[in-house]
Design goal:
Number of domains of chain A: 1
Order of helices and strands of chain B: EHEHHEHEHEEEHEEHH
CATH architecture of chain A: Alpha-Beta Barrel
Largest sheet of chain A: 8 strands, parallel, barrel
CATH architecture of the largest domain in chain B: 3-Layer(aba) Sandwich
Strand content of chain A: 5-15%
CATH topology of the largest domain in chain B: Rossmann fold
CATH superfamily of the largest domain in chain B: Response regulator
Number of strands of chain A: 8
Distance between the termini of chain B: 27 Å
Shape of chain B: elongated
Order of helices and strands of chain A: HEHEHEHEHEHEHHEHHHEH
CATH class of the largest domain in chain B: Alpha Beta
Strand order of the largest sheet of chain A: 1-2-3-4-5-6-7-8
Number of helices of chain A: 12
Oligomer: heterodimer
């Protein structure tokens, strides 16, 4: 069996990649993770597992990734720098690799004030870009922070997030460049609703040669309702939902809004697929994992490519 | 300067409850500047405590005194002549001042009346903002004179994160995004290219690598 990440193999083969995500439960039941992952089998190439997202205590991303890996699927371990210092982060990279977890997404993490542990200390010993560089040095040079040699190198496909919609706009691409120069092999973006701004960002990235240096996966999230569209527009920092999309969701009856949300998502994916420099999509169907199959199918992305040795 | 705020009266009353002769001790330095523990605030707190005690029919003597600095031993020793009259001191100094007085007078409880907050500046009347962590290795040069450690909620050396919107931080739309401030500053003196450098992990040993820090200067010793 090939020990390389499926995500990496799909991208290196030149196929349009599909990833999705699975939020671990607020509990210790492995069945919940496996059930969510099962919904995605055959529909996506790899499954991101979020790391205590929105700073809410959940089953560890590492443990959920291990469950998913053992079920024969390809997990992407999300790791935030909010909760662990450089000792713990580096140790977990070694542990992840040892368990066959081959993809890591290096993130800052939502601030602890948003979650259910607002009294927790925020560690932030490394930032996400430093973390990317640390993982790259571990993998490529076999050294940890400070230069000490490892006995063996971890095998990790390194990911980073990018938000084309946050401010300041002119700096978003500088930051993308920093992440790629630090060692990111692939990029998963924030949910794309404003395609014009995304294209603008992508063009700037292309002009800097960044789309040749890393695989960019466009993030999409199907809107469940007009209420969700408005919430994302007004309450979520760094989220850009254009007015006409909100109006479009409001324009259909309540029962039809889910369907409309999926339709918008599929249209977005089709447009992304045509853009020069987009190498795949990342579908974040928040607590709506059963919608992913339908979206991917309607977007014409099934069946997923077969790889040698599978 | 070091900023502080007064603790709630109920908490202070709870701590001084066992004592009958209390010295309310002000500090005329930083905490006077931030209107928390100077001579004026000390008089007000002492008076409030006397009034409360009277209302509750408590037999307690509360007097006040303000030192120029509670964190400097040369000033603290001025208490030598009066301290024996009291069985507790309620100190309106920062944590450093409280401990300096406690170090000097081991037999008597020194009770904090303030919560020490941060190293900051007085930006306007009634407005103090945090802008230094005392990390032991100043990096302000690289960031246009804006400290990403003290002023970015996630202490990013390579920011801004995806939560920066309209110059504000994701944790609260009232909080300025430190990274927007850094970028604006660097743009003004044409040093935006500094942002393309990946700033390496911080050496935290200078802050906490050797336990509590101290500075020894032989040239200053008597």
């Amino acid at each position: 069996m090939n020990t390389m990440s499926r995500l990496r193999r799909v991208l290196e083969k030149g196929e349009f990649a599909v990833t999705s995500e699975c939020g671990p439960p607020k509990g210790a039941d492995p069945e919940i993770v496996l059930k969510k992952a099962e919904l995605l089998r055959g529909k996506v190439d790899s499954i991101n597992v979020t790391d205590n997202q929105t700073a809410i205590v959940r089953m560890s991303s590492m443990a959920a990734c291990s469950l998913i890996k053992n079920a024969g699927l390809d997990p992407v371990l999300q790791m935030v720098v909010r909760d662990r210092n450089r000792i713990a982060l580096q140790s977990d990279i070694l542990g992840a690799s040892a368990m066959g977890i081959r993809n890591v997404l290096c993130l800052s993490g939502d601030h602890q004030c948003f979650g259910n542990q607002p009294e927790a200390v925020g560690v932030f010993d490394l930032d996400s870009i430093q973390f990317i560089q640390v993982v790259k040095n571990m993998r490529d040079e076999g050294v940890i922070v400070g230069g000490e040699k490892l006995e063996s190198k971890p095998d990790i496909f390194i990911g980073a997030a990018a938000n084309p919609f946050a401010d300041p706009l002119e700096f978003r691409v500088v930051r993308l460049a920093k992440k790629i120069n630090a060692g990111a092999d692939f990029i998963q973006t924030q949910c794309i609703y404003n395609l014009d701004r995304f294209e603008n960002w992508l063009k700037m990235a292309r002009d800097k040669g960044l789309t040749e240096k890393a695989y960019i996966l466009g993030g999409v999230t199907p809107l469940k309702s007009a209420g969700m569209a408005k919430y994302m527009k007004n309450k979520v920092s760094g989220m850009d939902v254009p007015d006409d999309l909100v109006k479009r969701m409001e324009g259909v009856s309540k029962e039809k809004q889910k369907e409309e949300g999926i339709k918008i998502c599929v249209e977005t994916i089709k447009k992304l697929k045509e853009m020069d420099g987009v190498k795949g999509i990342h579908v974040m169907a928040i607590e709506w994992e059963d919608a992913v199959g339908e979206i991917v199918e309607k977007a014409g992305l099934l069946p997923r490519p077969e790889l040698d040795g599978e | 300067m070091i900023t502080a705020e007064q603790k709630p009266i109920s908490e202070i009353r709870g701590m001084i409850k066992p004592y009958r002769r209390i010295l309310v001790l002000g500090c005329a330095s930083c905490v006077a500047e931030c209107a928390a523990g100077g001579q004026k605030e000390t008089a007000m707190l002492a008076s409030t405590l006397r009034m409360k005690a009277k209302m509750e029919n408590e037999d307690v003597a509360i007097e006040e005194y303000t030192l120029d600095r509670q964190c400097v031993n040369d000033f603290v020793v001025r208490l030598d002549d009066i301290i024996d009259k009291y069985d507790a001191v309620l100190s309106l100094a920062c944590g450093a001042g409280v401990q300096a007085v406690a170090e000097m007078y081991q037999e008597i409880p020194i009770i904090p009346a303030l919560n020490t907050e941060f190293l900051g500046e007085t930006r306007a009347q009634g407005l103090w903002v945090e802008n230094c962590l005392g990390c032991g290795d100043c990096i302000l040069y690289y960031f246009g004179g804006v400290c990403p450690l003290a002023r970015c909620s996630k202490q990013l050396f390579n920011g801004p994160c995806g939560g920066s919107v309209n110059g504000k931080c994701e944790i609260n739309r009232e909080v300025p995004c430190a990274w927007q401030t850094i970028i604006d500053r660097l743009a003004k003196f044409g040093a935006l290219d500094r942002l393309e450098t990946i700033y390496p992990p911080k050496n935290w040993a200078k802050k906490q690598g050797g336990g509590p820090r101290k500075i020894v200067r032989e040239d200053q010793e008597k």
